[in-house]
Amino acid sequence: MQPHAHTAGSRPRAGAMPGVNPVAAAIWPTVLFVCGFVVLQFGGLDDWIISRFYDAQQHAFPLRNAFLTQTVLHDGGRRAMQLFVALLVVALLASPFVARLKPWRWRLLYLVIAIGLSVGTVNVGKRVSNVDCPWDLTAFGGDRVHYGLFDRKPPSAPVGKCFPGGHSSGGFALLALYFVGVASGMRHARRLLVPGLLIGGVFALDQWVRGAHFPSHDLTTAYLCWMLSLVCYRLLPARHRQPGG
After folding, report:
1. Residue 34 domain-assigned (yes or no)
2. Cβ 108 vs Cβ 92: under 8 Å
3. Quick check: helix, strand or coil at residue 137?
4. What is the CATH number of the domain that holds 233?
């Protein structure tokens, strides 16, 4: 699909986000995130959901190292997303020289930056948040005390690197496709939310089943990926944020 051309009379005004209300696109996801996070973290839903996948008799998550969850969905999923990003980079580098790619070069650049920034930000968050994985906790067969995100963790406690959810970021980063659809004049751009929500959701569920993350970890990842995709979109030159640009 080539970006739609618009006449001067039909082109949205400079700086506008065609088909997207930037305030609503930031506020409503934030409201949903805060409500969901409170219920999961402080309402006990995090522990309840993860306990569905924990076998108290085995003192372990039975599917932690299963072929489907570990080899296919975790390792294979990560490689598939790395390959997708590599293809995006190749397309971006080729865009000045390939006629069919030239109209897409700014949108390709946007995708590479938005996806890279989303995944990178989540991974930095994991390194500084000092939050443990479920499988590390005594309640789920581990040897660590459970400290919440806002609890003061003793300096002597082991360092955790499990918040936000890293694996799901590869899927939720694809929410950026929605903004490419908007910029391209796609009539049903919201359909491009499906890949990010579906792949991110599957990757998140896989990590819950394995005991690697609580649902609130991946909810935070989804929120960060959405907001970073929105910010990157707004930072594009105005003429490239609208069809034909």
Report:
1. yes
2. yes
3. strand
4. 1.20.144
